[in-house]
Amino acid sequence: MGLIRTAILGGLGYLGYKAYKNHKDENGVAFADGQPTGGVREAGAGATATKGDTMSATDEALDETFPASDATAKY
Questions:
Q1: How many alpha carbons lie under 13 Å from residue 39 in its C-beta half-sphere?
Q2: Do 55 and 35 form a contact (C-beta atoms < 8 A)?
Q3: How far is CA 25 from CA 10, 40, 43, in A?
Q4: pLDDT at 25
Q5: Helical residues (DSSP H) of the chain, grouped into ranges
């Protein structure tokens, strides 16, 4: 009984992992079509999902500094 339960839980864990991996590679809503997959998109208004919108010079400069402008998580 314990071996069967372990096999079932292992199979469910594997299926959950595969579903997570397939979902993780998708781009978020802020990415324009044709952007590489992952957590970071290219900088600039052309790389966003709303290509018709324009960025101010300040917004574009801040967008181009990401992630270098983020503080480290070391305290």
A1: 3
A2: no
A3: 23, 12, 19
A4: 53
A5: 2-24, 57-65
Please state the pTM of the whole predicted model.
0.38
Locate 19 and state its tokens: 């579903």
The single-letter code of the amino acid at 34 is: G
Count of CB atoms situated within 10 Å of the CB of 41: 19
**How far apart, in whole angstroms, are the C-alpha atoms of residue 63 and residue 72?**
18
Q: CA triplet 28, 21, 31: central angle to 5 degrees?
A: 15
Number of other residues whose CB lies within 10 A of the CB of residue 48: 19
